[in-house]
């Protein structure tokens, strides 16, 4: 599945993306903001991630900057650990922070979620990463609710804030009168 926003192309990951994923996530400041990413993040980790099969009902997208064609991050949907809830997740390489691209990528993923008929999305961030909270609030997520979540990179549970976005009823096709 592909999706286009004003400045981004959201597309599936390809195995040959591993080096760009490693460059983006291979920084401790990024890995420690993600629940399921180990630190150190290795070439094997990046190769594994980019070769995973895609679930068309819960797509994970490579975030490509349209202007440069560079892979600058990831955004997608998945199951929240230990839950059936659909969760939004994302990361951007540090050199692309502060330009509204995480919000734009998140908005694109939410548009896809609506098209897929998903009615509720959850998301969260570690309490020491308030920038992600700003992104989630810009996307319309409500909350937050205090929680704790395990961080693989940190090797422990960390204070987190959890949010919810109600998408409502899936869009119904308009029927034309004959």
From TrEMBL:
GO molecular function: acyltransferase activity, transferring groups other than amino-acyl groups
Keywords recorded for this protein, A-Z: Acyltransferase, Transferase
PROSITE patterns to which the protein is assigned, alphabetical: GNAT (PS51186)
Cited InterPro entries: Acyl_CoA_acyltransferase, GNAT_dom, N-acetyltransferase
Matching SUPFAM superfamilies: Acyl-CoA N-acyltransferases (Nat) (SSF55729)
Residue intervals of the N-acetyltransferase domain: 8-168
Cited Pfam families: Acetyltransf_3
Family in the record: Belongs to the acetyltransferase family. RimJ subfamily.
Protein name: GNAT family N-acetyltransferase
